Amino acid sequence: MSWLDELVWRLHELQCPQDFVFCILLLCWSGYDLLQEFEYVEYFAGHGNITRQMQSARYCAVRMDIIDHTPRKPKKQNYMDLCSPCGFALGVLVMLKTVINNFAAHFGIKCSSLCRVNKGTSMRSACSSEGYVGHVSVLISNKLLDRTCALVLLCTALGGAWSLEQPSGSLLEYFPTWTYVMRKIFDNGGPQAVHIVRWWMKHYGSRTSKRHMGFANSPAIRRLDLGRLQVSKGPAPKTCVKYHDRQGRLKYKGTKHLKATEIYPMKFARAVLDLVEPLKQGARGQPSLPDGGAPPALYTMTQFEWPVPAGLWKYADFAETFNYLRGSKRLVIPEEWRDVVPRKMKNSFSDGDSIGDV
Question: Is 201 within 8 Å of 209 (Cβ atoms)?
């Protein structure tokens, strides 16, 4: 029994989409070095203060953000963009190179389309969290959400601790795929498998108060809440202004101070560093192996059912990444798998427009 057998079985227990598991298998067969070396992974890293703190404490930490892309040839994909086939493949590969059962990952996912301030454009609400997919920005955000959910399931199956941060007004918690993933982690880890916390970033040195919320599969995340916010002297910089358009509708516009709120203060990054060991120790949600160990991955993929509720994962487009990896010259599919792995995959979850159709 190999670690791959255990991983595939645990992903099945978490009811992960089989299409995503096929992408993982193709990466494992593509000759990449899967040395388990990373102790901390920061997705959507932006300024990267958390990664810097981890590296300064001698953790083997790695960051991933769309801005880290170094263009090599015109019209080439952004290999740091989780919306691109190679970017998502790289994101999965980075997770596979973590130290199993002893690592942490953080997701500071892009929030612009999920904020309540943006609902006039995105048309999102608690009852319609997918928004108006006629806007490309909404489709891209939904795709990032679906793919982030897949990475959260992979992190959980590998025994890692994950955390995800959003502004307090974000509608992410109502997104169908996210709620589904949280339920599956609850089913395997018990009622305390996922924790939600809210805190004031002002407590960590931010110029604005800005309320944040975080999700994690470890109770240690609750330590970020430092209590009530005390009124400070002096005016705080305004991050947005209100105005009425010609039709009299209330509108919001960001100021020059808004962009700075995307950067984690160094004090907050140090607080996350102090939490990394408690987070790892308290990680929950990983399915336990059956008596006698996990069956071979081939048996799990072919003899078990892989049910997925209708309407979920329709933005992830795992087929896009699968077809990208399937055409790799590095790929060597084991003989016993050649009749199982399809030559080409269609997006089996899509029931609407894709980004390319808009």
Answer: yes
- CA 157, distance to chain mean position in Å, is 14
- Please report which residue ranges of 158-296 form alpha helices under DSSP H: 176-189, 266-281
State the average pLDDT over residues 65-70: 87
Alpha helices in 72-229 (DSSP H): 85-96, 119-122, 136-157, 176-189
For the chain, the helix, strand and coil percentages under 3-state DSSP, each to the nearest 5: 40, 10, 50
Q: What is the pTM of this model?
A: 0.90
Amino acid 268 reads: F
Residue 326 structure tokens: 């399937």
For residue 157, which of 288, 309, 18, 27 has the smallest C-alpha distance?
A: 288
**In b/e form, how buried is each residue of 331-344, taking b as 16+ CB within 10 angstroms?**
eeeeeeeeeebeee
Per the rule left: phi > 0, alpha: psi between -120 and 50, beta: everything else, 264 is: beta
In 3-state terms, what secondary structure has residue 170?
Answer: coil
In sign, the C-alpha dihedral spanning 162, 166, 168, 172 is negative
**Please, what's the largest Cα pairwise distance for the chain?**
70
Share of the chain above pLDDT 90, in %: 68
Tokens of 336: 């016993």
What are the extents of the domains in the chain? 3-357
CA 288 centroid distance within chain: 23
